[in-house]
Specification:
The protein contains ten helices and eight strands. It has 291 residues and is an alpha/beta fold. The chain folds into two domains: 74 residues, Ribosomal Protein L15, Chain: K, domain 2, CATH 3.100.10.20; 200 residues, Four Helix Bundle (Hemerythrin (Met), subunit A) (Up-down Bundle). Helix 4 runs antiparallel to helix 5. A four-stranded mixed beta sheet has the order 1-5-7-8. The protein has a four-stranded mixed beta sheet with strand order 4-3-2-6. The longest helix has 26 residues. Helices cover 48% and strands 14% of the residues. It comes from Mycoplasmoides gallisepticum (Mycoplasma gallisepticum). Belongs to the CRISPR-associated endonuclease Cas1 family. InterPro entries: Cas1, CRISPR-assoc_Cas1, CRISPR-assoc_Cas1_C, CRISPR-assoc_Cas1_N, CRISPR-assoc_Cas1_NMENI.
């Protein structure tokens, strides 16, 4: 049975009783067993949450996301210690440049092939553009020194959202949808990394003193096309600027996107992290089924 996503948008206090989340709303008392929850999304900026509940949320590996007054995710609660020993962390801090470059090459190739399959599925391109994406995929080298990832993303954005679209336009409605989706996706990856004993701050390609989610930014790359597809479906295909419904469908898509191995996105993120740790990435396991 799929676990639930709980959005806290109206109530001003959520607490814990035994292993049950308590929501008080308009004098009523609503209870939800923590074991049934995958994610708690707090969109009410005035909501209070009890410390015992926070501890139980972490203990149950529930993804807790807090949004600001503009409904943009600004905070994620993560445990200090993971469910693993320090083995994976010690492996991570010993990464050589050669290892990181090989991993990044595989992640970039996964991202490009998922873009190519999406563009082909939507039938919004020509054979020439498919050939370009194929060439970008073929020409990826260790460390992606020729920036095939950037070229493929730029072409895919142009095909999905038009010639004039730019990721640098902060007030653009498309970027609003993309940014929200990417941040939520990043929280799911972050949770999985912590669960597997890895340090989010130690990235493969993304490196910045100000980025505390560098590794999440790396690992999420092959799955970004899912956010791009959902944004395209709302704003381009259906001309439907309904951000509230988009947020709901975003979480549903994480359950419904099925990969060739029959697993959903949550499961596949965990598979990819473990595959990187074990140096056994099978590309076919991470190809998105757009049908």
């Amino acid at each position: 049975m799929s676990k639930k996503v709980l959005e806290v948008s109206e109530t001003e206090f959520i607490s814990l009783h035994l292993d049950t989340l308590i929501v008080r709303k308009h004098g009523a008392r609503i209870t939800l067993p923590l074991k049934t929850l995958d994610t708690i999304l707090i969109t009410n900026p005035y909501c209070n949450i009890s410390v015992p509940l926070l501890n139980k949320i972490v203990e149950n590996n529930i993804n807790l996301i807090v949004c600001n007054t503009k409904f943009q995710p600004t905070m994620q609660i993560l445990p200090i210690s993971s469910y693993y020993s320090n083995k994976n962390y010690l492996w991570q801090i010993r990464w050589t440049d050669e290892q990181k470059n090989k991993i990044w090459k595989q992640l970039v190739k996964l991202k490009i092939i998922n873009y190519a399959r999406l563009i082909n599925h939507l039938n919004i391109t020509t054979d020439d553009n498919i050939e370009k994406l194929t060439n970008y995929y073929t020409n990826v080298v260790d460390g992606d020194l020729n920036n095939c990832e950037g070229h493929a993303a730029k072409l895919s954005f142009k095909l999905l959202y038009g010639e004039d679209f730019s990721r640098s336009q902060k007030d653009d409605i498309i970027n609003k949808y993309l940014n929200y989706g990417y941040i939520v996706l990043m929280t799911y990856v972050s949770r999985t990394l912590i669960k597997n004993g890895l340090d989010n701050r130690i990235g493969i390609f993304h490196k910045s003193f100000n980025n505390h989610f560098a590794l999440s930014c790396d690992i999420m790359e092959p799955f970004r096309p899912i956010i791009d597809y959902l944004t395209f479906s709302y704003l381009i295909k259906n001309q439907n600027d309904d951000f509230k419904s988009y947020k709901k469908d975003l979480f549903i898509s994480f359950e419904n996107f099925i990969f060739p191995n029959g697993k959903n996105l949550n499961q596949v993120i965990d598979m990819l992290v473990k595959a990187i740790i074990n140096n056994k990435i099978n590309e076919r396991d991470f190809n998105i089924d757009w049908s």
